[in-house]
Amino acid sequence: MPGPRSAIVGQPPLTVDDTLIVHGWQVMFGMGQKDPSLGLTIAKKPPPPGLSEPSDTTRIAVGCTISMVLMILLTGTRLVIRGTNRALVWGMDDWTIILATLCSMTLPVIYFYKLANAGGGKHVYNVTYWELANHQTMASAAFGLFYVAVSVIKISIVFFYMRLSAFASRTWTWTHRTFIAALIIGAIISLVLTMAQCDPYYSNIREIGRRNIKPKCVSLLNMGIGFSVWHILSDCFLFAVPFIMLWRVQMKFWTKFKVCIAGIIGLANVGLSIARVYVQYTARNQKGGFDLT
User: Fold this and answer.
1) Could you give the CA distance from residue 45 to residue 287 in angstroms, rounded to a whole number?
2) Which residue pairs from 78-86 have beta carbons closer than 8 angstroms and sit at least 24 positions apart in sequence?
3) Ramachandran assignment for 123, one of left (phi > 0), alpha (psi -120 to 50 degrees), beta (any other)
4) What is the pTM of this model?
5) How far is CA 57 from the centre of its chain?
């Protein structure tokens, strides 16, 4: 989707808005003394004439589409089974999985917006200053919403555990409730820290350029590593609970099977969380140019 008139990153700005964006990034990178009319200097350069580097735009669009379809199909199938089978009773796990699906759907929606208006999937030397500014804003929004969605999904899983162990002790019930409270607090903290990432708070890169003051900001990657460590700990809890239930609580075979599936999913989540931390740590230590994803 074509945006307003704006120069390509690395070229001299064409508009006042471009100039504010360029100066904002210069201030953020500690180069506020440089003349913004010369454009933003980037480390990643275009390939030589005759060569090209493919973008990830199509792959991101396909991945987002598949994820949205799967979320709708899986959640819809579960709700249809719940609604048509009178033997099944609606519970808090059903309502929270609806909320979790809605929260999760916001992420591919944001990515579709980034593909259309924020240079998503492109190399930085192929986007405009206007797209670069949009990307910065949407990246922060996606960061906070991701950890909220993850927390709501885990809350739904805990409610499912509570449904299976409703006949267990009060200690077991309060353990689940305490964990739900911890997940809610974690989600709120992720939103608050995302919104208050910089001191003083600036809504976008243009405001930084206008004020010509470099804010003190916490790195999104560092915040991501911290939140991921918390979610690894919570994943370990979700992984351990099913096997504790199998050991301590008498259940029917079908119930045990469902608990085992939940445990396997919890183990997979632990592995994925550890992999995410590794990727974030690697990205934090990379130097040089950057692309928009």
Assistant:
1) 14
2) none
3) beta
4) 0.75
5) 18
